[in-house]
Predict the 3D structure of the following.
Amino acid sequence: MAGSRHPQDTETKPDRGARLSLQGVSRCFNGPAVLDGLDLEIASGEFLALLGPSGCGKSTLLRLIAGLDQPDAGTIERDDPEAALAYVFQDASLMPWRSVLGNVALPLELGGTSRGERDARVAALLDTVGLTDAAHRFPGELSGGMRMRVSLARALVTQPALLLLDEPFAALDEFTRQYLDEHLQQLWLERGMTVVFVTHSISEAVFLADRVIVMSPADGRLVRDFRVDLPRPRLAATRTGIDFTRQVQMLADTLREHSLHA
């Protein structure tokens, strides 16, 4: 079983994230429960991955946390309901008629942020995600990986305390996906927000997360709460290490066991 957090995890990362408490959360859609009496605590600044096969309720849970849907039973509480929240979808969902700069600036425009502050924050984020040179290009001119970086920048421009991501890199090739995993980790280490990341990739979950919550494929329950025991920052070489491989296998065994009994 994975053990305690490494010192590298807490010595340099700021703590600016939201705390969440989910108690007895259930959600049904004209049939068996998608989520059934779910309890979950998420610490401030934690990187939590929700792992499981398609249809197990991962995206439903994320939408409930975001307030895009309401539970049939139970409560979802944040320590500061007014703190900024950002949501990144699997599709980059960019406005094709707006430039990269315009897409990233949109949440600040809608929120009434002054032009000077807006320009400064957008410029800083484009530099952070390596898109300064693409600021005046349009989404149709970008690769899939670049579009997802724009989507990330747009989410982060509001300086959220909680960042929710629903399989954002699933449609990308493996090389681009691993690059963006590393980039997302670095952004999280620098900014300290709480992250809830939905994935069906075991290796991605182990690479990114402090904790991996394994969801049952059949009955809307959480079947394992697994703390990842790897130092940070996690690098490309981490993926070939014995500890990484061992923890990926442990989670694979858990998923296999519950799939067989579903």
Observations:
- Residues 33 and 249 are 29 Å apart (CA to CA).
- Residues 242-260 form the longest helix (19 residues).
- The first strand starts at residue 20 and ends at 28.
